[in-house]
Design a protein that fits this description.
Blueprint lengths: L1 H8 L1 H30 L9 H5 L2 H9 L2 H12 L2 E5 L2 E4 L2 H8 L6 E3 L21 H15 L21 E2 H18 L14 H11 L3 H5 L3 H4 L1 H24 L8 H7 L1 E2 L4 E2 L2 H14 L2 H15 L2 H14 L10 H4 L2 H13 L9 E3 L4 E3 L2 E3 L4 E3 L2 H4 L27 H10 L13 H18 E5 L4 H5 L10 E3 L3 E3 L4 E6 L5
Helix pairs in contact: 8-15, 9-12, 12-14, 15-18, 15-21, 16-18, 16-21
Bound molecules: protoporphyrin IX containing FE (HEM).
Protoporphyrin IX containing FE binds next to α7, α14, α15 and α21.
Length: about 500
């Protein structure tokens, strides 16, 4: 006792004791929190990995690594259709939960605050990140005007060399530049010309960093992002500045663009009832979003599409035959009845989006006051609920041999044994652009881009995987190769896809 008293009278010891006291309190509180989350939390009876039930940092770590979609699949295989994937989060793997309960218009949910990270400014949310339903409705109406019928398409793509096979072309990069150019045209009335010139090709890799940054909402919320993400912020700021300059350039162009671009639509939009309009900053944050949401999603899907076709010669030959039989010349290839008649081509696009959904991770929603029934269970207010498209689209109950690229599954045909019932079921579950009030606004554009790019390519060219593809070399057991990707906010290819082209023989 006298020893303790003398320790307290010494300022150094006093400080040490205080620190020890604080540490004791923290350890004590943490233990209580762990016990509470494991045994007394309202979600404690739902199955799932214990570490995920204890701390948000575990799923956050998986998300940062880009593997959350794979882990999520593993969890659902182990624990069933409902998994507690974080202390306050439930993941569902069931079509009814996805289509009717969580994402539909009538669901009693809203976006979680964590979406704030998807806007370039904390004070100016964009269409994707905004939580307030009225502001969202205004922003979405504005974009909808722009995207309703603007599925305009790519101008010229690959070098037209007749005769011999071209040198290998990395389709992952080409697709990225192509889609960026197109989106530039739609937003600012002029292409970025990444296909033609290398000067702006530094932009797309930064968007991948932004997509990864999107997986760190907790760090962002605590305003620690500028410390922990400092190495990537330099690049992200350069991209932000570059987009701001494009917005200014576009302002200087005034009314001189031929067709109304997205910029003019946003600049003119007014919500008279609530006295709302777009500030320049809003246009900037919206542009940053559209460059992310409209590019990597589509270009990754396009790369997956080419990947699987180059690995499946029967499917490649069938889609080539179909397109060459339907179209008489390349100028005919545009959105319309002939493209819609390419049934096998559409099946290939569906299959690529099924295996590699552009947004593979579960999009979280917060249950509002009064709770929400999901999958027949009453979920309390404040819980985060979500469903991952990647996991749902790999469920054998809906898709036979779910890991296989098999476009035939989308077409009723006695010779393949595909019956109407299974096609209908697949179509019911399949929603790569999500559903409901927060579903993808650019789906029509993306769908036509994908169909058009494939139709045009196989109409004009023969294509093949360049010899020595790494995926095939690594594949020692003779299994089918799979398109490898990381699941950040958007699916991101891990490897190059090197393809060779040869101009098709002239039409007879
Ligand atoms: C294959 C391509 C694409 C896929 C797979 C895709 C997928 C999705 C998905 C799943 C969502 C819902 C996210 C959520 O639950 O919150 C979404 C939202 C969105 N997408 Fe896409 N997308 C694609 C292309 C595009 C394009 C081309 C654009 C525009 C240029 C675009 C713009 C948006 C926007 C603005 C939202 C937010 C909508 C809202 O919250 O109201 N997307 N997309």
């Amino acid at each position: 006792m006298p020893q303790a008293e003398s320790a307290r009278s010494n300022p150094m010891c006093c400080q040490l004791l205080l620190t020890q006291d604080t540490a004791n309190v923290i350890i004590h509180k943490s233990c209580l929190l762990v016990v509470y989350r494991l045994f007394f939390h309202p979600l404690s009876h739902y199955p799932g990995p214990k570490l995920a039930a204890i701390t948000n940092w575990y799923p956050a770590f998986l998300a940062w690594r880009g593997d959350l979609h794979l882990k999520n699949l593993e969890w659902h295989e182990k624990y069933g259709d409902i998994v507690r994937s974080a202390p306050n989060t439930l993941y569902f793997n069931d079509s009814h939960a996805m289509v009717s309960d969580i994402y539909s218009t009538r669901a009693n949910v809203c976006k979680v605050d964590a979406w704030a990270i998807y806007s370039a400014s904390r004070r100016s949310p964009n269409t994707l990140s905004v939580v307030d339903k009225d502001i969202h409705a205004f922003k979405r109406r504005t974009l909808a005007t722009a995207f309703s019928d603007r599925a305009r398409l790519l101008s010229e793509d690959m070098d037209k060399k007749a005769g011999n096979w071209s040198p290998g072309i990395n389709m992952v990069a080409i697709n990225n530049w192509l889609i960026f150019d197109l989106i530039g045209d739609i937003i600012y009335g002029r292409s970025f010309q990444m296909l033609d010139s290398p000067s702006k090709r530094w932009i797309p890799p930064i968007y991948i960093k932004m997509s990864r940054r999107g997986m760190t909402p907790k760090i962002y919320k605590c305003k620690l992002d500028q410390i922990f993400l400092a190495p990537m912020y330099k690049d992200i700021w350069s991209a932000g500045t570059w987009v701001r300059e494009r917005v200014k350039d576009r302002m200087d162009m005034g009314e001189s663009v031929e067709e109304k671009d997205l910029f003019s639509i946003m600049a003119e939009a007014k919500d008279k009832k609530r006295n709302r309009e777009y500030s320049l900053k809003d246009i900037w944050t919206e542009s940053m979003l559209l460059l992310a949401a409209g590019t990597d999603t589509t270009s990754t899907t396009m790369s997956a599409l080419f990947f699987y076709l180059c690995h499946d010669l029967d499917a490649l030959s069938r889609v080539t035959g179909e397109v060459r039989a339907i179209f008489d010349n390349e100028d005919e290839i545009c959105a319309g009845p002939k493209l819609n008649a390419c049934q096998f081509l559409q099946a290939c696009v569906n299959e690529a989006m099924r295996l590699v959904p552009g947004v593979p991770n579960a999009s979280p929603r917060r249950v509002l006051a009064g709770g929400q029934f999901v999958d027949g269970k009453h979920i309390p207010e404040g819980t985060t609920v979500a469903s991952s498209l990647y996991v749902l689209f790999r469920k054998a109950e809906y898709f036979k041999n779910p890991d296989d690229f098999w476009p035939q599954r989308w077409i009723v045909a006695p010779e393949t044994g595909v019956i109407e019932e299974s096609v209908n079921l697949a179509k019911k579950v399949f929603c790569p652009f999500s559903i409901g009030p927060r579903s993808c606004i650019g789906w029509k554009l993306a769908w036509i881009e994908l169909n058009w790019a494939l139709a045009r390519t196989v109409f004009l060219y023969d294509m093949r995987l360049a010899p020595g593809a790494q995926c095939c070399l690594d594949n020692k057991v003779g299994k089918k190769c799979h398109f490898n990707f990381k699941s950040f906010s958007i699916a991101t290819p891990v490897s190059e896809l090197v393809v060779q082209f040869r101009k098709r023989k002239p039409l007879a």
